[in-house]
Amino acid sequence: MTDNAKVVEILHAMKEAISENAQFLTDLDAPIGDNDHGINMDRGFKKVEADLPGIAAKDIGAILKKVGMDLVSTVGGSSGPLYGTAFMKAGAKTAGKMEIGMDDFLVMMDEAIGGVQMRGKAVQGEKTMLDAMIPARDAMRAAAAEGKDTRAVLDAGVAAAEAGVEYTKGIIATKGRASYLGERSIGHQDPGATSFTVLLKAIAAAY
Amino acid sequence: MVGFVLVSHSKKLAEGAAELGTMMAPDVPVAAAGGMADGGLGTDYEKIMDAVTKIREQAPEGVLVIPDMGSSCMTAEMVIEDFGDPDVVLIDCPFVEGAVASIVEASGGASLQECRTAAEEARQAEKL
C-alpha cells in the first residue's frame, strides 16, 4: 500500500521529472503546437511543489484535488484543464483515503482518462495524451490481473505509454493546436502523450 | 441587461474584441479575460473567474462567456462549472463576430437567449 506521505514523495518526483524535461517538452511542442508545453507544465508543478508542505498531512483525495486545482490555475495552456481535471477526478475517487493500493491506482487512471476525454472531447487516436494514457492503463490492468507485483505492473504501464508516444508519431493530429497542421503533424510525437509518460515514469521510479 | 466575458489566450485579442463590441454598445457590461496574470499568452482560471464574478454583478439577465479556442474553451468551461449559475453560459461562436453581434443585441435589451442566438448566428454571416 502507498500512504499519503508516499504520495507526496511521488508528487515531488513528478515535479522534478517535469523540470528536467521542461525544455524537451517545449521543443516537442515547437513544430506542432505553441512552443510552451514544458514551460507551462513546469510552472504548474512548481506551484504544486510550493503547496505540498501545507497539504501533506491530508488524505490522498484532498492532496490530489489540490494538485488538480493548482494545475488548472497556473499552467495556462490546454494541459492545465486537462491534467487538472485528471487529478481532480482521481482525487474524488480517493477522498478520505490515507493509503491506496494498485486497485485504487487503476480506478484513478480510469477517472483521469474519463476526465481528459470529457474535458478535451477527445478519443484515442487523435494524437493526444490519451494515446499514452489509455494503453498504459490497459497494460497495467492486464498485468495486475495476471497477479504481477506493483513494480511489474508499473513497468508494464511505462512500456505501453512509451509505445503510445511512438504511435503518435505516425498519426495526424485531429485535436488541439496541432490539428491546424493536418498532415504536417505526422512525424512528430505528441507533447501531451510524452509528458504523461514522463509523469508515469516518475511515479514508477519513485514507488 | 446581459453581460459578457471574452476569453482568449491573448490579452490583446480579448481586449480588442471587447473594444470593438462596446464601441457600438458602450452601456453593456463587458470584461476581457485574456492572457496570463503576467500578460503572457495563455488562459488564467482566476482571471476568468474574477471577470465572470464582476460582470454577473452588473448583469441581472445573465452572462455569456465567449472563448476563442483550445484552452480558453476548457478553462472557461471549468470556471462556469465551478461558478454554478445557470444564467452564466459558455457559447460556441466566432470570437470577434459573435461577440460584436451579441453585445450589440444586448444593448437593445435582448434576453440571454436572444443574445446567445445572435452570437451563434454570426457563424453563418457572410463577410464578402
Give a verbal description of the structure.
The complex is a heterodimer of chains A (about 210) and B (about 130). Chain A has about 210 residues and is mainly α. Chain A has a single domain (about 1-205), classed as Serine Threonine Protein Phosphatase 5, Tetratricopeptide repeat (Alpha Horseshoe), CATH 1.25.40.340. Chain A contains nine helices and two strands. Chain A has helices at about 5-20, 20-30, 35-55, 60-75, 80-95, 100-120, 130-145, 150-170, 190-205; strands at about 1-5, 100. The N and C termini of chain A lie close together (about 10 Å). Chain B is globular and about 35 Å long. With about 130 residues, chain B is α/β, with parallel strands linked by helices. In chain B, helix 1 runs parallel beside helix 4, helix 2 (about 45-60) packs across helix 3 and helix 4 runs antiparallel to helix 5. The longest helix of chain B has 14 residues, at about 10-25. The interface of A and B includes residues 36, 76, 82, 120 and 176 of A.
Q: Topology of this structure?
A:
The complex is a heterodimer of chains A (207) and B (128).
Chain A: E1 2-3, H1 4-20, H2 22-32, H3 37-55, H4 60-74, H5 79-93, E2 99-100, H6 102-120, H7 130-145, H8 150-169, H9 191-206
Antiparallel strand pairs in A: 1-2
Helix pairs in contact in A: 1-3, 1-9, 2-3, 2-9, 3-4, 4-5, 5-6, 6-7, 7-8, 7-9, 8-9
Chain B: E1 2-8, H1 11-24, E2 30-34, H2 45-58, E3 62-67, H3 71-83, E4 88-90, H4 95-107, H5 112-121
Parallel strand pairs in B: 1-2, 1-3, 3-4
Helix pairs in contact in B: 1-4, 2-3, 4-5
Provide a concise account of the structure shown.
Chain A is built from 9 helices and 2 strands. Chain B has one domain: Rossmann fold, CATH 3.40.50.510.
Main traits of this protein?
heterodimer; A: 207 residues; mainly alpha; Serine Threonine Protein Phosphatase 5, Tetratricopeptide repeat; two-stranded antiparallel ribbon; 2 strands; 71% helix; globular; B: 128 residues; alpha/beta; Rossmann fold; four-stranded parallel β-sheet
